[in-house]
Design brief:
Distance between the termini: 59 Å
Strand content: 15-25%
Shape: globular
Structural class: alpha/beta
Largest sheet: 6 strands, mixed
Number of helices: 25
Length: 683
């Protein structure tokens, strides 16, 4: 609150004992003007003289008994930390003391030390200058459009209201802004109102949790379950196929319900094995030092498997590694494969976890986990039991697995991918609402899931974007899927998204990417894919909060949700055009401008200005309802108060009826009265 000050007068410099009291000189608030640069508040140590700058968040003035000066205690933050300050102003009342109030910003020179009176650490002010609150502007001649943004309606994720985002977009001169909350449209009404007030065009969208219900369990050559399969597993130096190597390959050949042969080989990956991988697998550098190199080991493995159908637990990972390393070594690898997890979901639909150790426990099969040959043998034994259960149900061929899959459980259990949907026009808005309703009513499991087939069915009037690193296109490119598969995935989308490095830097932290260059290269490949396929590529911020300082609030929320890396917040703030151009400078000046400015504006132009609500109400009509309502009301009042009505009663009645009838609501009251009367007459 503001400090109450009366009879303002300029203070005079005073000296009493050892206490120095700030004096007014020129434009300085207290003490003298100075030019020194400030340092972050969180860098200040005890007994330090420093210059800091920040915003006041609370202030209080006290007046010692001698009345010779005013003590102002206030708290100020620069959003690195918050400190307590004190300053002495000569005289009991002073206009400059009144300037220290919440929201004001100052640059201060003084000393940070323990205060015996306050019994706390305080920053004692010697000089203090008022400064303008720092305001970020978008000074680009042509502004970008943000097409990926989360409001507070993205539960436990977005931190800013639609109104504040739109106000900022208006201040910056952005002509449009997109709303893409996670699976919901609750921010639309507020955004619509803010758009009307500011003139900013609102693009109504969502970030959906899409499930690919078109994906089949098995799409290779058909074969009997009693036929020959090779079940295999690999151990690696890490998760990223681009810079990690294979350390062990294990495989088991099965046929007619029996294990026929096994294959096991260490592999020298040509790189050190990280300590965390050694702890997980028990495989050390010494154990693989004399092992075959990757090409030799893969050559032996390919000879063992021949043209057999391969089976792996989480086949996406193992097949991806083998395919990539064969490609690097110049080896042919074209075997069909099937994932034992997908089979388990058919055979054991009610099991909560399909991890290998959990299935081993279910079937009471011993497992020494995270060694390739042991995992392969355990998976083979589990597979034989599952094949036997399927044959009892009359399923004897691999092709029968696709028909046996429960479509509803498939949607519930399948991995979801983020996908952005924008309503292009009113038809698109209606279809978007239908999809959101289906996701919550028919397909909700932990999240509102949206089947890909339903998006296709209601695609009219909707523009579809590939979303963030949780989207299927980014994943396919990042995981180096075959080009044919990437293009098949990409064909579903109307435009592709790429995002700043900071959004995806967690991939480096988690060891899934080697460095920034790998993530930048992934974005380059998406850009080149868009060029080849004739589809726009747009740069989006995946905005979750307004300013960089707000990241700490998201950290608090994520800590409460159990995120271990909550303090490593991505810079998901609303960026200016120049900031985004700088983020994508590695694409080259022309390409960066295309994805940041040209294409985002083109998509905004492609979307119509949607009238979210009609300008007028659409009341039903009953002839003379306003006259009948007035007559009924007067009749009832006369029953209660007599005829003629007392003046104050009639005056009050006319005021009430006037508000109802003049605003066109008489029909609603008349219908309500009729419904209540009918209910009462029916007992």
């Amino acid at each position: 609150k503001a400090i109450p000050v009366t009879n303002p007068k300029k203070p005079q410099f005073q000296q009493k004992g050892r206490r120095r009291r700030a004096a007014y000189t020129g434009s300085a608030v207290f003490g003298n003007e100075f030019e020194e640069d400030s340092v972050p508040m969180n860098s200040i140590a005890k007994e330090t003289t420093a210059v800091v700058e920040g915003e006041v968040i609370s202030a209080e003035a006290t007046y010692p008994k001698d009345g010779m000066y005013t003590r102002v205690l206030f708290t100020m933050t620069d959003f690195t930390t918050t400190l307590n300050f004190k300053v002495f102003v000569s005289g009991k009342h002073d206009e400059h003391a009144n300037m220290i109030r919440p929201g004001k910003c100052f640059k201060i020179r003084g000393k940070y030390d323990y205060d015996d009176f306050a019994r706390d650490m305080l920053f004692t002010v010697s000089d203090m200058v008022a400064v303008e609150k720092k305001k970020v502007s978008d000074n680009a001649p042509e502004k970008r459009v943000e097409l990926h943004l989360h409001t507070t309606m993205s539960a436990q994720d977005g931190l800013c209201s639609a109104k504040k985002y739109i106000s900022r977009a208006s201040e910056w001169g952005h002509k449009a802004i997109g709303i893409t909350d996670h699976g919901v449209v609750q921010a639309f009404p507020e955004a619509f109102g803010a758009g009307k007030d500011t003139g900013v065009k609102i693009l109504y969208g969502i970030e959906a949790y899409m499930v690919d219900d078109y994906e089949k369990i098995y799409e290779g050559k058909d074969a009997p379950l009693s036929g020959e399969f090779v079940v295999f597993d690999i151990e690696t130096t890490g998760l990223n196929v681009n810079f990690c190597g294979i350390t062990e390959i294990g495989a088991v050949r099965i046929k007619d319900g029996e294990i026929l042969d096994t294959f096991a080989s260490f592999v020298n990956p040509g790189m050190p094995i990280p300590s965390n991988i050694v702890a997980l697998t028990g495989i050390t550098d010494e154990m693989v030092s004399d092992a075959p190199d990757t090409k030799s080991a893969l050559t032996q493995f390919l000879k063992f498997i021949g043209d057999s159908i391969l089976v792996a637990h989480n086949a996406r990972f193992d097949m991806g590694f083998i395919a990539k390393k064969c490609e690097e070594c110049g080896l042919e690898f074209h075997n069909d494969s099937i994932d034992s997890i997908a089979i388990a979901k058919i055979v054991l639909p009610d099991v909560k976890s399909y991890k290998l150790n959990k299935l081993a426990d279910y079937y009471k099969i011993p497992l020494k986990h995270h060694r390739a040959v042991n995992d392969a043998e355990c998976t083979a034994k589990i597979l034989l039991k599952m094949f036997a259960a399927l044959e009892q149900r009359g399923i004897t061929m691999l092709s029968g697995l696709n028909a046996a899959e429960d479509s509803e459980k498939k949607i519930r259990n399948s991995r979801s991918h983020h996908t952005v949907l924008y309503a292009k026009n009113m038809k698109g808005l209606i279809n978007l609402y239908k999809l959101v309703s289906m996701a919550h009513i028919d397909y909700f499991y932990k999240k509102p899931r949206m089947p890909k087939s339903k998006i296709e069915e209601y695609r009219e009037g909707i523009i579809i974007g590939s979303a963030c690193c949780e989207g299927e296109l980014f994943n396919a490119v990042f995981e180096n899927k075959p080009q044919k598969e990437i293009e098949k995935i990409a064909s579903f989308y109307d435009y592709f998204e790429i995002q700043p490095y900071g959004n995806n830097s967690f991939l480096v932290r988690e060891g899934r990417a080697k460095d920034r260059n790998e993530i930048d290269e992934c974005n380059k490949r998406i850009y080149e894919l868009g060029k080849r396929m004739g589809k726009r590529v747009v740069a989006t911020g995946d905005v979750h909060f307004l300013d960089p300082k707000d990241a700490q609030f998201r950290a608090v929320i994520q800590d409460a949700m159990g995120f271990k890396d909550c303090d490593e917040q991505a810079p998901l703030y609303f960026k200016t055009t120049d900031e985004m151009l700088n983020e994508f400078s590695y694409l080259g000046e022309e390409a960066a401008y295309e994805v940041v400015v040209t294409n985002t504006n083109a998509i905004a132009d492609e979307i119509e200005s949607i009238q979210l609500f009609p300008n007028e109400t659409a009341m039903p009509e009953i002839p003379n309802s306003d006259v009948d309502l007035r007559n009924e009301s007067y009749a009832r009042m006369k029953q209660i108060y007599g005829d003629p009505l007392p003046e104050h009663i009639e005056k009050r009645l006319e005021r009430e009826l006037g508000s109802i009838i003049k605003n066109g609501y008489s029909i609603l009251y008349w219908i309500a009265m009729k419904l209540v009367a009918k209910s009462m007459s029916d007992g």
